[in-house]
């Protein structure tokens, strides 16, 4: 390459880097603004998921892509339902204070926070949707076998996670948990 070609490539890279930086900043701004809007975020994700499902139904293909998406979502769900500090690994560290029934209160902290869980699922559906436009990724497969194997995998993994939750007495959801509402006046 000549010096003029290198200079023109360098001149082209500066506006591209500037555009990428501006796009990244704007994207992060709207992502930060969406943080407290939990219901709206999840409704948008459900809409993206429905568009993906309609695309798969319409194309009657891309079952391997859908299977991989299902495995990835299962992995995210396990991270969402798991505590940040695993009680099995903590028990190996030896006895810790306090050790009786009046143990110190430890709130449930997820290994994968809700916002990152939402963001990862939404991004996964968008990537899977984009993959449906590449015919090379439409691998012919007998889809009932994939569906059966995925259901078996979900059942075994969920069973293991539920047994872990029962053994260490933690609930990863807010449903039915007691909340402090302040002092009650008599």
Tell me what you see in this structure.
The chain is mostly helical and 186 residues long. The chain has one domain (38-168). It is 66% helix and 0% strand. The protein has helices spanning 3-34, 38-59, 63-81, 87-91, 114-131, 143-168. Helix 3 packs parallel to helix 6 (143-168). The N and C termini lie far apart (86 Å).
Descriptive key words:
186 residues; mainly alpha; 0% strand
Write the layout of secondary structure elements.
Blueprint: H1 3-34, H2 38-59, H3 63-81, H4 87-91, H5 114-131, H6 143-168
Report a brief summary of the structure.
The protein has 186 residues and is mainly α. It has helices spanning 3-34, 38-59, 63-81, 87-91, 114-131, 143-168.
Alpha carbon gyration radius? 24 Å
Task: Briefly note the structural class of the backbone.
Answer: mainly alpha
* Helix/strand order: HHHHHH
> Fraction of residues in helices?
55-70%
């Amino acid at each position: 390459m000549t010096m003029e070609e290198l200079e023109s490539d360098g001149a082209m890279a500066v506006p591209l880097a500037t555009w990428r930086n501006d796009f990244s900043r704007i994207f992060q701004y709207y992502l930060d603004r969406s943080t407290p809007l939990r219901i709206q975020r999840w409704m948008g994700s459900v809409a993206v998921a429905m568009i993906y499902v309609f695309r798969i139904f319409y194309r009657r293909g891309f079952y391997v892509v859908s299977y991989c998406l299902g495995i990835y979502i299962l992995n995210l769900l396990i991270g969402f339902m798991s505590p940040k500090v695993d009680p099995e690994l903590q028990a190996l560290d030896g006895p810790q204070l306090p050790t009786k029934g009046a143990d110190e209160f430890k709130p449930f902290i997820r290994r994968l926070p809700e916002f990152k869980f939402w963001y990862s699922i939404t991004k996964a559906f968008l990537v899977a949707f984009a993959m449906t436009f590449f015919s090379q990724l439409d691998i012919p497969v007998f889809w009932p076998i994939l569906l059966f194997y995925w259901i078996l995998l979900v059942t075994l993994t969920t069973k293991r996670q539920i047994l872990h939750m029962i053994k260490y007495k933690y609930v990863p959801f807010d449903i039915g948990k007691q909340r402090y509402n302040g002092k009650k006046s008599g």
